[in-house]
Input
Amino acid sequence: MSLRLSRRELLAATGASALLVPLLDHGRARAADPAFPKRIIFVVTGNGTTERAFWPKASGNTLTLGEITSPLEKHKSKLLFTKGVDMKVWAEDNPFGGNGDAHHNFGAILTATKLATGDPPHDPGGPGLALASSISIDQYIGRAFDQQMPVPFPVLSVRAWGRDGTGYATLSWTGDRAPVSAESDPKKLWNTLFAGRTQNAPDTGRIKQQKTRRSVLDYVAHALERQTQHLGKDDQHKLQIHLEAVRSVERQLDASSMPVAACVQPTTPALDFKPIEAFPQLVDTEIDLMTAALACGLTRVVTFAIGDGEDYNIYFPWLGLTGKGIEFPTRHKHDIAHRPGDNDRDKIQTEQWFMSKLAYLLDKLSSVPEGGGTMLDNTIVFWMNAMNSGFSHTVLNLPMIVAGGANTGIRTGGRLLELGSVAHNKVLASLANAVGVPMEGWGDERYKGTLDLS
Amino acid sequence: MPSSAAAPSPTATPNAGPSPLQRLGQLELHNTYRDLFPSLPDDFDAELELPADNDVQLAFSVPGTVSDLEVKRFMDLAESTVNALGADAPYRSAACGGDQTACARSFVQSFGRRAYRRPVDPAELDDLIALYTQLRSDTDLAYGFEDALGIVSQAMLQSPGFLYRWERGLQPAQRDGMLVQYDDYEIAARLSYWLWHSPPDSQLAAAADRGALRTPDQVAAQAKRLLDGPRADAALTDFVAQWLELGPLAQAVKDTDVYPAWKPELAAAMRDESLKLGLDVLRGPEPTFENLLTARYTFVNTALASYYDVTPARDGRVDLTNIPRLGLLTTGALMAVKGNSYRTSPVRRGKFILNRLLCTSVPPPPPNVVPELPPPDPQKTLREQMAMHRDNPACAGCHDRMDNLGFAFEHFDGAGKYRDQENGQKIDASGETTLDGDPRTFDDSTELVQALAQSPEARACFVRQWLRYALGRFELDADEASLDALVSSYDDTRQLIIDIARSVPFTHRAPAQDEELTP
Output
């Protein structure tokens, strides 16, 4: 069963009223070429960068990459740097006041609206939860794509470390106070995507297992619907979120028993992903799996959180940075953000490492042939940092790169686009338009509008 | 008796705030499974990784919402657990003499009574039997009697009756004046999940069946029974561990150039020490807030004895009379978790006192603050080096209060060891703060801790922390009258726990917005 959202349902899902809900039913998403549909990948990492080493220099048609982005040199012609983008919905108005400790802003990144919750004790949602108030754009685009061409996973949410279910760590939200937990275990991710998936029709054993699970989940959904009677508004909301999650899993189950087109499926990862020393392999494995999921037509939207807003548990033994912190107990990413080392040496080195992972993602997408080009031509990769400076917590002039998408409305070509001071809402809306999901703006109505990225 | 905050006025009506629907937390889920299936080993869910609860600043962790990842985890948990039970599965012993559907009904009712912590509603029962019938009669499925019941059990373990703390069932809640009174099943579950992190035992379940949890005295009697039982140790130590924010201690890394005596295994030993001390006071003859802060003894293992340079008795108990440590606030665990890898953290220690001892929240740093901190100076003490916090008006608003409190603990280094000197300089652990509206000065942590132990404001905060732990939510305006009564009658913590159990916010709640009630 697929999700068919009416405008009313979408409005209900989005929650807040002062929202720009794109005119989805005014022009259905442009019909995609079913052989090579458009895809979009959102990659977010936190704790800022070192500006002088991040932004490239443009002179005429030549782009010179900074030290941090040097690993992207071979993909330079497929990059667009959007400079001068501010998270205005956070900088100008957030529930924590001031710059509101932007370590808690993950819930506002892809939603581009003000958070639903603020400080305890008067607002029990508090900084411990920092919940979003509306749907995130990856979920919105996923649902729009779904109406043209259902896939098992409208949005694939993946994370490397970080925490679940809170505004410190969650990028993807199906609506008001409804976080989507992202998978961090590569083996479980593989199981979800590929276990038992073959090109053949399922055997009787598998049919029985699927049908059994479906019957159980149908029962659970029915029980949830029944339980919401008599409850208060907020409690009903909680069970409604649970119910939607059950429906989402049911639909994944249905899709998992459908034979798939020929595609190269990866083997089961054998990684012990828990020690920090395995972090580089974890990120690589997750990139491999998401690429395979895209290539196999299992999803068209991927949201990838590398770390979370705080990054207290990511540190860098493989770069020779030891465990001893300067301002914090360990030399983790948050410590490095606040104490970047002499001449920002440690900060630059670690940020460069993250860029090498973006380079790996672009390598993988480029390795899948599609038509006369590659999957990267049909995929927009949007990479951003949740902060400009993890030291001052500023969210103005956010580090941001748009890559790939040659067959979408985006023109990259190794460009630096100076935008002055625009709301990040506009960038997100522009990306949605570029992949064929038309909208006049995204998120908070105060920051409506789009940009010309062509 | 402590001198009290103003006693509640005669016209103030004890009242209660609304209570949001919560699902079973990580530990509660684990314990409920083990209670239902006693043959399960303790690590039955280790591979599965149940979703962790979310920390809440100034209060206690709560479970989060359910997205598809959690639905899959609950499904995997139910499937793998039930399939692994084999001969120990409850439905395997439900020998059925005749009508299998009638046996199925009987099984669902008895298993459901325990799994849902209440009787199964007739409508739920019918739906579950419909599922059972489908599992048996569908030609693709065609399960046998026992296997079908196994799958029905799995469905029950994923349903809201099991996963959510809503032991009311399908009927609307009952009005009681302006409030809703929790029914017997709800009271039983509230008591057992609070004090044992587990579903009700058979005695509590029987009391609920008999309708014997209606009056405050009845509820208090069961609370006392649960509290006196050894299973309450888990909740008492969990409260202390969360109250002291000890979680991050397990991952703490200390610079062994600065702290050569530090070993990673000391972190676990220190955590054990704090929890053992806390439990000993709370189980002892005077389980008071004052004693938690000022107890002049502790418990150490061999490694910790050597680290603290003390000689324990055979049971690990150490007399601290001649040692400048007292109670929970100067234990190695708290000092180390609120310490950096190479130095103390007076800011985090001060913030901790404000948050957990005085229930005061501290706003985040102002936007775009880029302080020019001087490089570490080995000639100066940390207090001298952090002078800018107090001298710069942009910082002083918050840091004056925080730092003053935090520097009181400067004799305890970043790895929890006592020291007389810092960089060859004498340590100044004196400071001033405001307590109960009055300025208070102190020479060191001992004096600060003793002032906190005597402070009505701190004691009231302690009561507030316990209420937050019991209710699983923040107190709201409607709860304040009951909170005032708990504060003014506070004598010791065990009595407080029983008083909370009999209080209106525990036995009642305000209706939720738009909730339909029976008139």
Summary: Confidence is low (pLDDT under 50) at residues 1-12 of chain B. The longest helix of chain B spans residues 265-283. Chain B is about 45% helix and 5% strand. The longest strand of chain B covers residues 431-435.
